Amino acid sequence: MLCFPQLLTGAVGQFPGGKVIRRRTVVNETEDGRTVKLGDAAAGEVEWVLELKGLADSEWEAIENLFEVVEGRLGTFTFLDPFGNLLSWSEDLSAAVWQKSQGVSIAKGYEDPLGGLGACAVMNAGVGEGKVSQVLAAPGWYGYCLSVYARSAEPGAVRLFVSTPSAAAEKEAAIGPTWRRVELSTNLYAADETVEFGAWIAPGRTVELFGFQVEPQVGASKYKKSTSRSGVYRAWFAQDELVRTAHGLNDNSCTVRIRARQ
User: Fold this and answer.
1) Strand 251-261 vs strand 156-163: parallel, antiparallel, or unpaired?
2) Host H or E run for residue 63
3) What is the strand order of the sheet 99-100 is part of?
4) Residue 82: phi, psi to the nearest 5?
5) pLDDT averages per 10-residue partition of the chain, 262 residues
């Protein structure tokens, strides 16, 4: 899997950084003067402008090597949105993209910690632990932060996990009737090209969950709602050359422009 390299800080981008979403509307004017407009979903595009500073020589070389391998604008690579939520349908655990163990059911429309009704009740009627999870076509050697708001009517626990076919990490957090945002930050250093993110629920328990979020960095940022589009993109460089400014040993800067279909 070719992918944009993660920086030594555990992030993909730096601040300030830019992200622009472009959409196209097709306009057709009829002979009688009427105008018909139709959104062209297939033409949607997103562009990131990464202003990278203080790069170690190895970080710059990794970016430059990727640029050379994909031959500039020509080839594509996997890019993880540094400003978004990598998961899709973050507030709808009943969506098909979410995998549920046998015996686990989902009820929607519960009050969430942000004052809306976006939380879901996850009920495990099975005899063993049950999970709700989502699998991403993402590099197993990246570092990630998984976060979610959780609560339960009675004191209990929720166990977050990040796993690939060859490695796994887990973290158990105590929860109660008050909303708590729990996090799991890990790097599995696995060679796998899929990563599963989710939570385990004890048998016979009901846990309310809201705002699942995965980010390619070491800590959780402000919650970002996602719908059908995940933050994993098939992208390409939007420039013909990379220009590096070397300020000294292990101190480089460059501007990287990346585009993908929205």
Assistant:
1) unpaired
2) helix 57-69
3) 99-100, 130-136, 195-201, 156-163, 168-175
4) -75, -10
5) 96 88 72 70 84 97 97 97 97 97 96 97 95 98 98 96 98 97 98 98 97 97 96 97 95 97 88
Question: Is 224 exposed, middle or buried (CB count within 10 Å of its CB: 0-12, 13-18, 19+)?
Answer: middle
Residue identified by tokens 């990490």 is 169
Structure tokens at 192: 């796998």
Which two three-digit tokens encode residue 14?
């730096």
Q: What is the pLDDT of residue 31?
A: 72
Residue 243: CA count within 13 A, CB half-sphere:
4
162 contacts 103 by C-beta, under 8 angstroms: no
Three-class DSSP category at 68: helix
> What pLDDT score does 114 carry?
97
Please tell me whether the peptide bond between 16 and the residue prior to it is cis, using omega within 30 degrees of 0. yes
* pTM above threshold 0.85: yes
